[in-house]
């Protein structure tokens, strides 16, 4: 049975019957990271404490992209240098400056009984998506399939992943992260509703209330989903686990 524990923000503990993957580790204390530039407020990040996390239990780390809210200095310093790191090919060279076992995935790879596939993602719209740089989602397939969409807006290729792979659990990064100018660069509440409507998976919504430019709260998202009659989305608190 697969389970997803939201640690904080986009940091996840994925457990596939004992194979443990730490996704997008941001391990620093509140205030360690400067406010995101050009944001509607100037609150230093993270905004909340890190729940208890035993770093020794993980078999590998997964990094969807190199923004500091997905891999911070604290994670680079505190994780073992020889832990396997699964990533997109564009990030492999930089990650090898910190970690010795970097495993870029452009298609399908195997890790400890889990099939890992790269999936498309788009971190915003228009020119802003280009400025944000490359980002990747990942599918993890063991007895059950978990789809981590990554920092992406709702668009056709994400819908295609849902249709083609029929995941059991699916994690979406929401919070409507945005700058002073431009549209949100992560999934909006409307995007989460559309995502949930396109799948029978148990959807887990994360990436809220921990970084200063994520403006959609858990309560905002729940209100919208309830109004739309969406019932297959869990919105866990930091430290909570969602299982099939």
From TrEMBL:
Keyword Cell membrane annotated: no
Signal peptide: none
InterPro entries from the UniProt entry: Metallo-B-lactamas, RibonucZ/Hydroxyglut_hydro, UPF0173_UPF0282_UlaG_hydrolase
Short name of one Pfam family: Lactamase_B_2
Domain Metallo-beta-lactamase: 20-208
Keyword annotations of the record: Hydrolase
Gene Ontology MF: a single term: hydrolase activity
Name recorded for this polypeptide: MBL fold metallo-hydrolase
């Amino acid at each position: 049975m697969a389970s997803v524990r939201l640690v904080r923000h986009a940091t996840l503990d994925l457990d596939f019957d004992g194979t443990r993957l730490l996704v997008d580790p941001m391990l620093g204390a509140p205030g360690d990271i400067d406010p995101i530039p050009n944001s509607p407020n100037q609150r230093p990040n993270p905004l909340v404490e890190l729940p208890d996390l035993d770093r020794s239990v993980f078999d590998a780390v997964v990094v969807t992209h190199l923004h500091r809210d997905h891999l911070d200095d604290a994670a680079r310093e505190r994780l073992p240098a020889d832990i396997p790191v699964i990533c997109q090919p564009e990030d492999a060279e930089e990650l090898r400056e910190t970690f010795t076992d970097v495993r870029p995935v452009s298609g399908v790879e195997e890790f400890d009984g889990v099939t890992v596939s790269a999936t498309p993602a788009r971190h915003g719209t228009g020119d802003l998506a280009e400025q944000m740089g490359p980002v990747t989602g990942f599918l993890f397939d063991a007895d059950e399939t978990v789809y981590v969409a990554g920092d992406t807006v709702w668009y056709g290729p994400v819908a295609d992943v849902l249709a083609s792979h029929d995941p059991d659990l699916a994690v979406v990064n929401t919070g409507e992260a945005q700058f002073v100018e431009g549209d949100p660069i992560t999934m909006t509440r409307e995007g989460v509703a559309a995502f949930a409507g396109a799948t029978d998976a148990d959807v887990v919504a994360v990436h809220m209330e921990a970084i200063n430019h994520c403006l959609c709260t858990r309560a905002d998202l729940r209100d919208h989903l309830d109004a739309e009659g969406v019932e297959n989305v869990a919105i866990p608190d930091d430290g909570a686990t969602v299982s099939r």
